[in-house]
Design goal:
11 strands, 8-stranded mixed beta sheet, alpha/beta, 3-stranded antiparallel beta sheet, 8 helices
């Protein structure tokens, strides 16, 4: 890792990360380090982290996690980075494929939860658009339902590095959106990622029964755009809801700079 101020390497001494210019960052009790230069809290709040944790631990996204894991195992990375890792549901599993693993997210509650559950991975509070890593230092990075920081990802990935992205398929959450909107718009296709060439792409889809639909809604962007009537409609679904989970997995190789 590099210092977010002067970009010199950080040395881990005891419970402190320090660079040669004496910029230091304390390691939290849970094991993460806060390298964010933002003063105000950012990312998922505690409510969103709690809702996402409850939903993910129910196992409904396990088929996605296992499919991504199988791809990562074929890449054999020495260094792995999860961009926008949230509370570490995917990171914890994916870190097993690498010698060194990192997860970065702006949400302190999410990173705190992740670090408390996973001691192998070094979790970092920081921005995916200003990564605290040296040029060409990472073998494989993942971006699971996060904005794709193409330029920063290309900068930190080695010349033969890979970026694996997971984005919503066109039918993702279709039935949930039917409950919220009079007309449902399908998700658009994924755009090319600047600086990368597409190596492989697959779409995986399952329709699964969701008992706690409110937990699903609270972990999506829809929650903060839904009027009170929509919230009440979801809360009234006493028998749950069958929901389509549709994911596009894309493997990108960093383009040759020459």
């Amino acid at each position: 890792m590099n210092c977010p101020i002067c970009h010199e390497p950080l040395i881990h001494e005891g419970r402190t990360f320090k660079c040669k210019n004496n910029h230091s960052f304390d390691q939290a009790r849970q094991g993460y380090v806060n390298l964010s230069r933002k003063r105000k809290a950012s990312g998922d709040n505690a409510l969103m982290v709690k809702a996402r944790t409850a939903f993910l631990e129910a196992g409904l996204y396990d088929f996605l996690r296992q499919t991504v894991l199988q791809t990562l195992q074929t890449l054999h990375p020495d260094t792995y980075l999860d961009l926008g890792c949230g509370q570490g549901y995917y990171t914890h599993e994916f870190s097993k494929t690498a010698k060194e693993a990192y997860g970065i997210d702006l949400s302190v509650p999410a990173i705190s939860h992740a670090a408390g559950q996973d001691k192998k991975t070094q979790y970092i509070v920081g921005s995916i658009y200003d990564l605290p890593f040296a040029n060409k230092s990472i073998d494989v990075a993942t971006s699971i339902f996060t904005p794709i920081p193409a330029r920063e990802a290309a900068r930190v990935l080695k010349d033969d590095g890979y970026l694996l992205t997971v984005t919503p398929g066109k039918m993702h959450h279709y039935e949930l959106k039917e409950q919220l909107y009079p007309q449902v718009r399908l998700n658009p296709p994924l755009e090319p990622v600047e600086g990368f060439e597409l190596v492989d792409q697959q779409e995986i889809r399952q329709v699964l029964h969701v008992d706690d639909v409110m937990a699903l809604l609270e972990m999506t962007p829809y929650f903060y755009k839904t009027p009170k009537a929509g919230i009440e409609k979801i809360q009234s679904l006493k028998n749950g809801l069958d929901v389509t989970f549709d994911f596009v997995l894309s493997l990108w190789r960093k383009k040759d700079e020459s």
